[in-house]
Amino acid sequence: MTCHGAEIIMGEGRSRDQWTAVVNAMVARGARATENELGQIANYLSTHFGTNYVAPASLQKKPAVAKLGVGPTSGTGRGPGPLGAGAADSHVVDNAGAERGKAIYMTECMVCHGPRARGGNKDLPANQQGPNLVRSLIVLRDRYGSQIGPFLLKGHTLKSGRQSASLKTEELIDLSHFLHQTVYNTLRTGNELRIQNILTGDKKAGEEFFNGAGRCKNCHSATGDLAAYGKRFEPPSIQQKFLFPRTVAFSRDGSRGRSAKPVTVTVTLADEKTVEGVLERLDDFNVSLRDAQGDYRSFVITPSVKVVKHDPLDEHVKLLDEYTDKNIHDITAYLESLK
Questions:
Q1: What is the mean pLDDT of each run of 10 residues along the chain (339 residues)?
Q2: CATH class of 62-194
Q3: Cα(126)–Cα(184) distance, rounded to whole angstroms?
Q4: Under CATH, to which class is 264-311 assigned?
Q5: What is the pTM of this model?
Q6: In contact, 94 and 83? CB cutoff 8 Å
Q7: How far is Cα 240 from Cα 204, in angstroms, rounded to an integer?
Q8: How far apart are CA 260 and CA 309, in angstroms?
Q9: Would you kindly state where each structural domain of the chain is located, as residue ranges?
């Protein structure tokens, strides 16, 4: 809790997949921990703050008052991101208001702006193709209807044929909540972006790639380390792990998958002595590691110091530049078929 207040963790319950995504996002932002520690963190959060968790009343988000441009009268002041991060004036969504706003959107706006507010149907005439609202500056700059309200009050034909100027203040605020919720869900992996069926590939083509161009068989075996892989892991975890094998993933029974082998480094000093260990940090100026005894060692990189990095997952990194979208889905289908 050194960097984050209790309200960040205790303000809202999340599923195991959502907490895992939060942990991985923190790693992407620079958080440092071993894979075992990351798994423990994700397990703890999903166990104690899962989908059935109810936040204390003092930490629950307060709804906005019914006045254009006026936000919550109390609350944490934090934004709506996965861990509550964001600008101090971020629009805090009232879920009940967003649900009412969704009904308005589906009835009056969806035909032109699309079911996900990302732009209208291209089969419609150009003058009926609404813009992408997720990227709209009016929506992004809006706070509780401060921009959306005045825009719609100028007059905008709705699906029902009535003018948007006829919308009540409460309806404009609800619509604002819904649109902001859609933006947050799009940018920050919200509840609406649940993983859909990704088994759309050709498992036969995936097997051919595995044994051929993908070079996967050089390190893995369908009857060895990957035996019953599809029985152990859900398709999203399968895809995530072969694309980004150092991320946290859980098996179908909720246990954490096997940890990837660590990156090691060999440092050859000017006197030809070598030091080897698990890589801690490497940049243009310094390299640090932990040796076999667990001792921390750090060296300044000079022309006389040779540094060789050994990443057992280097082939996975190389393949990121080679995969096509079809390859990815084909491999996922093949690995899922290993039962």
A1: 60 74 72 77 83 67 61 48 53 88 92 85 72 90 91 88 90 93 76 71 96 95 94 91 86 76 95 96 95 95 96 93 94 96
A2: mainly alpha
A3: 28
A4: mainly beta
A5: 0.53
A6: no
A7: 20
A8: 16
A9: 6-59, 62-194, 203-244+316-336, 264-311
